[in-house]
Every structure is written in C-alpha cells, then in structure tokens.
C-alpha cells in the first residue's frame, strides 16, 4: 500500500505547567505540539512517523471535519502510548517510531488538525520532544489489471499434431530444453556472494597515513 | 554514543599515525621476495624469530585503562547531572543511564545456573558421585553432537560442557565446519601475510610478547597466536561486522592518491586495530583447537559475535558500557557498605574490575574455569555474565576489602584470581545471597 506524505505545519511546542513558567523551579513534564494542514483538504490519515527524543508517553488528539455544520470536536485517538518503557533510562529514547491507522482508537477519515501531547515524568532529562514528524495519507491504489481472456479462461488441451517422420518427439525435446534452461537460470541466480578478499588495489598496498574523515 | 565512539577512534588513528611518523615506518609495504621466502620457512616458529624491528620502539596503541577514561567521561547532553549530591548522580564511574538488569531479572535470565540445576564446575567435583549429574550430562552432550543440533547445543552448554566435547560443541554453536574452502581461505590469508608487511604486525608481536608469552598457561601457544592474529588482520570478511557495530574501520589512501575514492582502502584490511591484551582473546582457544585454520575460524566468529563489543562504545546490553554499569549497579545495590568504603578510600571498584571484563577474564582465571565461563557466554549469547562474575568476586573477597585503606591494597587483594571457582561464585551471588 503506497503512502503519500502530507505537508504539515508543526507549530512550536507549548509547555503545560502549573503556576508561572518563569518563577517555578521544575521543568515542565507535559508538552503539546499542534500540527495543522493549511494547504490540504481533510484527508484520511494512514501513518505518523517521527524520531523520539526522550519522550516517555504520547497521546494524540484529532479534530475531524464533520459534514454537518456542528463545530468539529477534539477526539483522543491514541492514549498514553508508551515510547520509553523506563522513563529514567535510555531505552527507546531516540528511536524512530511509526504509528498506523489501525492503532488509533477512532476513525481517521477526515483529519483537520492533530495535537500531540508529550509526557515525560522523569526529572532526569533536560528536555524532550519528537523530531522529524511526518504524516502520511493513503496513496493512490494500484490500478487493477484486467486479465486477458485467455488467462482467465484457459482452453482445454488440444490434441497433439501427428509426429513427422525422423524427428524427435517435440514434447520430449521441449521438456529437455526446459530443464537445461532451468539449470542455466539456477547457475546465473546463485552467483556466489563470497568475496575474494582482496584488500589491495591492483596488487599495491602502499599506504602513507590513516585518514581522519 | 556514536559521537563518543567517533572521537575515540580519531584518537586511536592519531596515535597510530604519530607512531608511524616518529619511527618512519610505513603503515604497509610489500615484502621483498627474499623476505617472503624466509617468512614462509619460519611460519610455524615465528615465536623464535627475532623480529627485524626493535620492538621496544613500539608502544601499544592503547591500553584498557585509557579506554576506561573515555567511558567515564561519557555524558548525555540531555541528562541532568546537577550538583554532586542530588539523587540523580551516579555513585559509580559510569554516568550514562542505560537500562541494566537487576538480580531478579538476572535470576530469570540465568535460570539454568540455579541451585536446583546441575552444573559442570560445581557438580563434577571429586566429592560428588558422577552418577548424580555428570554421566547423564555427558550422555546428553554426545546425543546433541550426533544430532548436530546447534540450538540444542546452545541450550545444553548453559550447564557447562564436558572437556572432551567442548571443542565440537563450540564449533556447532558457532556454525563452524571445516570445509575445504575454509582451509583454502586460511591459506590465502597466510599468503597475504607473507606478501605484505603491516605496521600492525609489529603491534601484534609486541602484544603477544608482553602478555601471552609471559603467562604460565599460554606461552606454549605463542606460535599459534602469531599465525592466527597476523591472518586475522588481513581478513576482509571481518569488515562485515561493522554493519552491526557502532565502530567504523580506519581508512587510508594508496600513496600518492590521497582523496581519490578508487584508491581508498581499509587499514588494517580487517578494520580492527589491536590494543594491549588483544592476543588474550585467542590464547584460551588454543587449548581446544590445534589445527590452525579451525582455530582461526573459531576465533574470528567469537570476535565478530562477542569480543568486538568489549572495546567499542555502544548502548547494546552486552556492550562494555552496559557491562560496567551493570557491575556498578549490582555492587551498589547488594554490597552498599563495600561500595561506599571503596569509594571513600579512592578505589572505585570499576577501576579494578574493568580490565577483567575487557579481556573476558582471560589471563586472570585458571584456564579450566575460564572455559567454563566462556561456555556460558556462548550458551546465553550475552556477555552480561562477565559483569555478574566481577561483582561476585568482589562479594567473595568483601571481608578483606573492607579492611584495606588504599587503591593499591585493594588491587593487591584482587590481584590473584587464579584460585577462584567460577560457577559456585556465580551461584552464590545470584541465588544464595540474602538481599
């Protein structure tokens, strides 16, 4: 199933914190990222892909287009998805993650806006976010091919033509040729992948110094 | 982590380059025909040969303690280190918060080492009648070998391998079979050694002379070590392991063709620069295999599966950083008084145990005990047992260590491990210590 990237506009992260951000000591543990699609009509979401950077839990809310004139509501489509099994340690902290349509709690038919809510309860990390966010919608379906009639309705076996004098049996010849062809295909396909192991260039391995790049 | 590995590699390259320019010795040169013939004649007794170059001019590219300093200085820029007495700082030397197993998880992982299962190394001692465990275990081992079942061998060897079956079992687990093409490949590597002389060869000579030749158990294998390690340096198939290692092989250009990609080669051809003690990875294997090409294949497979993780920086659970952190965490959690005491006298435990783990205890334990330990490395496909054993050794000598007052004295208490029995130590630490 092909996918097509949807251009999105990722707004800056907003930290949610109790009290005044400037005066309180601790760091925020909740961040919100809004993703809008200014140039695209409401689409069906297929996949969300991003690189994690020390986010422990992810919640996604979506606002969909409704046909009636009721204002669109925010619906939670992914709740507390765990990205780091242990928020205090490095496991899963910098991994690439893909989330698919079928993992979502609701139907993602006509997406207008997305809101990603990131949570990192551990005080050990200085900052956390998700990077390289990419949204995909379903690509065009591959064109269905109509089978030619003779493939879908094979004709019954015909009677073989009578053998001409002095010539070998054509069905035997054809089976032998087929076997030979199969052998050549096998040999061509199984070219060995073992390297010869040459480390020099044309017999010369005169080196000056190691290179740093 | 990758950045740290990259800058560590740069340091090694700089060191090798400066050695090259100081001594005016080329990184690689083609041997003249006369020298080639001579080397071919002396192939089986390179240990007796006086090397052409004065080995005292060479110094090893790095030693494990240099590597330890790099690991101690690993910092995650996103990690809150804070002031030194908050709960966030690590008491040990490693400051990277990787996930390591604790004892309940280790008990589950190493369940076959438990007190209720028979073990070679414990239940084959002279006081235990062999009918209880040993005979049956040997019989099962022979059956596994006759079936040539690699997965069953790996499961079987978790309880230890009988000495007579060990060589074949390891070959079965590592998927080594001596086909004619393998012997031919080894002969080709030998030809490569004879044709080209590498600077790395002198490093290997020096390392063998300094470590294995001085060891009571391994000095007899000196010639084998040269044969294996010199060929290992020329083996380009080892380059394949860089696909799953965080390290990268050093590059160089043919003389006069700097910058042209068609003349870029890897140096050494296998991409691995040996450090002080590298030859100890090969030495114990010489007890098991006497045929050079099979010995070579076993060593190569052990290196690309396990040993490379002991000298490169990565977040893998069997990587040296995780092993160090596992060792420190185990010690802090289960022997807090000892850890605190050692830290107070300036003897951070990792400074003593690092060299054991980097060499996989080779050269520190008695050979039969070492082979029992390496049985479990193969059986569990993980190096974590090295960290557990290091912690178990500290636990065993805890009473003596509590009385020392300096790093030198602590090192003296732990200097000689040759009398230790590995399996009882591991069992006591994992399964019999009151937590």
TrEMBL record, chain A:
Extract the InterPro entries matched here: Nicolin-1
**Protein name (Swiss-Prot/TrEMBL):** Nicolin-1 isoform X4
Q: Fetch the PANTHER family from UniProt.
A: NICOLIN 1 (PTHR31239), NICOLIN-1 (PTHR31239:SF2)
Q: Which GO terms describe its cellular component?
A: nucleoplasm
UniProtKB/TrEMBL annotation, chain B:
Boundaries of every Rab-GAP TBC domain copy: 160-381
Origin superkingdom: Eukaryota
What is this protein called in UniProt? TBC1 domain family member 19 isoform X4
**Which source organism?**
Balaenoptera musculus
């Amino acid at each position: 199933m092909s996918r097509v990237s949807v251009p999105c506009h990722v707004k800056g992260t907003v930290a949610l914190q109790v009290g005044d951000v400037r005066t309180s000591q601790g760091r925020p543990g909740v961040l919100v990222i809004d993703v809008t699609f200014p140039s695209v009509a409401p689409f069906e979401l297929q996949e969300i892909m991003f690189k994690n950077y020390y986010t422990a839990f992810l919640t996604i809310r979506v606002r969909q287009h409704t046909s009636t004139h009721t204002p669109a509501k925010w619906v939670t489509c992914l709740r507390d998805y765990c990205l780091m099994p242990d928020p205090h340690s490095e496991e899963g902290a910098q991994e690439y993650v893909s989330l698919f349509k079928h993992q979502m709690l609701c139907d993602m038919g006509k997406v207008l806006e997305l809101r990603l809510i990131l949570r990192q309860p551990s005080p050990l990390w200085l900052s956390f976010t998700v990077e390289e966010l990419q949204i995909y919608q379903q690509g065009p379906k591959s064109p269905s091919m109509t089978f030619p009639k003779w493939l879908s309705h094979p004709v019954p076996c015909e009677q073989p033509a009578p053998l001409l004098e002095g010539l070998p049996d054509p069905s035997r010849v054809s089976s032998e040729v087929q076997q030979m062809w199969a052998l050549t295909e096998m040999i061509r396909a199984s070219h060995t992948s073992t390297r010869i192991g040459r480390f020099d260039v044309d017999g010369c391995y005169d080196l000056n110094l190691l290179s740093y790049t | 982590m990758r950045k740290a590995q990259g800058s560590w590699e740069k340091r090694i390259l700089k060191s090798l380059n400066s050695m090259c320019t100081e001594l005016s010795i080329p990184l690689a040169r083609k041997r003249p025909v006369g020298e080639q013939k001579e080397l071919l004649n002396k192939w089986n007794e390179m240990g007796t040969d006086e090397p052409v170059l004065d080995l005292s001019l060479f110094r090893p590219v790095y030693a494990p303690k240099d590597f330890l300093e790099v690991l101690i200085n690993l910092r995650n820029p996103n990690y809150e280190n804070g002031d030194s007495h908050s709960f966030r700082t690590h008491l040990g030397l490693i400051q990277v918060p990787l996930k390591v197993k604790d004892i309940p998880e280790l008990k589950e992982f190493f369940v076959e080492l438990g007190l209720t299962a028979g073990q070679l190394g414990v239940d084959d001692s002279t006081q235990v009648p062999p009918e209880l465990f040993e005979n049956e275990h040997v019989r099962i081992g022979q059956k596994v070998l006759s079936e040539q079942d690699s997965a069953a061998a790996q499961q079987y060897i978790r309880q230890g391998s009988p000495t007579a079956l060990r060589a074949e079992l390891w070959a079965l687990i590592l998927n080594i079979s001596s086909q004619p093409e393998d012997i031919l490949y080894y002969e080709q590597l030998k030809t490569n050694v004879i044709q080209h002389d590498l600077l790395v060869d002198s490093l290997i000579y020096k390392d063998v002379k300094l470590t294995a030749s001085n060891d009571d158990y391994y000095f007899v294998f000196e010639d084998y070590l040269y044969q294996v390690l010199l060929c290992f340096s020329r083996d380009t198939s080892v380059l394949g392991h860089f696909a799953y290692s965080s390290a990268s092989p050093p590059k160089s250009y043919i003389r006069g063709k700097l910058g042209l990609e068609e003349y870029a080669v890897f140096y050494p051809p296998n991409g691995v620069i040996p450090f002080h003690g590298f030859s100890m990875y090969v030495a114990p294997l010489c007890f098991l295999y006497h045929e050079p090409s099979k010995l070579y294949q076993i060593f190569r497979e052990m290196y690309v599966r396990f040993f490379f993780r002991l000298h490169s920086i990565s977040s893998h659970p069997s990587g040296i950083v995780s092993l160090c952190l596992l060792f420190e965490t185990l010690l802090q959690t289960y022997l807090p008084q000892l850890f605190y005491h050692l830290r107070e006298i300036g003897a951070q435990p990792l400074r003593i145990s690092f060299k054991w783990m980097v060499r996989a205890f080779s050269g520190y334990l008695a050979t039969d005990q070492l082979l029992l330990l390496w049985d479990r490395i193969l059986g569990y496909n993980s190096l974590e047992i090295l960290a557990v054993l290091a912690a178990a050794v500290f636990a065993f000598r805890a009473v003596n260590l509590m009385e020392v007052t300096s790093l030198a004295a602590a090192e003296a208490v732990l200097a000689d491990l040759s009398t230790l029995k590995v399996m009882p130590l591991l069992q006591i630490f994992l399964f019999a210590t009151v937590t």
